[in-house]
Design brief:
Shape: globular
Protein name: 4-hydroxy-tetrahydrodipicolinate synthase
Strand order of the largest sheet: 1-2-3-4-5-6-7-8
CATH class: Alpha Beta
Order of helices and strands: EHEHEHEHEHHEHEHEHHHH
Radius of gyration: 18 Å
Number of domains: 1
Strand content: 5-15%
EC number: 4.3.3.7
Function: Catalyzes the condensation of (S)-aspartate-beta-semialdehyde [(S)-ASA] and pyruvate to 4-hydroxy-tetrahydrodipicolinate (HTPA).
Distance between the termini: 38 Å
Pathway: Amino-acid biosynthesis; L-lysine biosynthesis via DAP pathway; (S)-tetrahydrodipicolinate from L-aspartate: step 3/4
Subunit structure: Homotetramer; dimer of dimers.
């Protein structure tokens, strides 16, 4: 499965009452597809998945699949720290028309590496969809190490990993010891270019909501051999990439979208809006 190089970890738009807003979702999808996104990852961390019910996730997926209409791959975040619940949600995502699923490392439970292997392999057996693993120890506490990812890559439909450990040695080992058709994506915007230099395929991006064309140009320049231009774009984007995580994500990127004229509403508790000062700082950063 070719997921593309710039995948956007899409925010979930809400209305004034905090409910999923499908009209705003349509506008957001069109904005992303017109601005460099080659794939959409929904109901993940940036999509506020911990606050979405299973029914909301499925309704959002069905709407996204219909709106996208096969223009780009749609990957559904169906992982959790409950293996059985993840199996059920993954099977529902397949029935709803997802092109792939993303499975996050179980959080809070703190499983060991064998537990991680059994968790992911059990879910993968329940679907024919391509599976993207999602390693993010900053949120899940447990790091899925290179050996476990390499072992999981031998399962036919485990085809990719979103690597957000920040450990470039681990990334190198994964790329070196997995098959050429196993894809590796940066899970952090700010290390996309360093990971590309190691052989990664792209990024599952937050910054692409507002700088998608720039991200697309950076990856394209690197892949065509123009490393200097890619590095220049990276340096230009780095303050924005950092600014979008200056407060808990996705609060800044939702605010940035609104500033840019794409209304996606607010966030659900326990996340809270930016203060006036934080919003003004973000506005100045975007304008600069």
């Amino acid at each position: 499965m070719d997921f593309g190089h710039i995948l956007t970890a899409m925010v979930t738009p809400f209305d004034a009452d905090g409910q999923v807003d499908f009209d705003k979702t349509t506008v957001l999808i069109e904005h992303l597809l017109e601005n460099g996104s080659e794939g959409l990852v929904i109901t993940g961390t940036t999509g506020e998945s911990p606050t979405l019910s299973a029914d909301e996730k499925m309704a959002l997926l069905r709407h996204t699949v219909k709106t996208v209409n096969q223009r780009v791959p749609v990957i559904a975040g169906t992982g959790s720290n409950n293996t059985h619940a993840s199996m059920i949600l993954t099977k529902a995502a397949e029935e709803a028309g997802a092109d792939g699923v993303m499975l996050v490392t179980p959080y809070y439970n703190k499983p060991n590496q064998e537990g991680l292997y059994q968790h992911f392999s059990a879910i993968a057996r329940e679907t024919t969809l391509p599976v993207m693993l999602y390693n993010i120890p900053g949120r899940s506490v447990v790091n899925m190490n290179a050996d476990t990812i390499i072992r999981l890559s031998k399962i036919d439909n485990v085809v990719s990993v979103k690597e957000a450990s920040g450990n470039l040695d681990q990334v190198s080992a994964i790329i070196e010891q997995t098959a050429d058709d196993f894809t590796v994506y940066s899970g952090e915007d700010s290390i996309t270019l360093p990971m590309l230099s190691l052989g990664a395929d792209g990024v599952v991006s937050v910054a692409s909501h507002i700088a998608g064309n720039d991200m697309h140009e950076m990856v394209g320049a690197f892949r065509s051999g123009d490393v200097a231009s890619a590095a220049a774009i990276h340096r230009k984007l780095l303050p924005v990439m950092k600014g979008l995580f200056a407060q808990p994500s996705p609060v800044p990127v939702k605010t940035a979208l609104t500033i840019k004229g794409v209304d996606v509403g607010g966030v659900r508790l326990p996340l809270i809006p930016l203060t006036d000062t934080e919003k003004e700082n973000l506005r100045q950063l975007l304008e600069s």
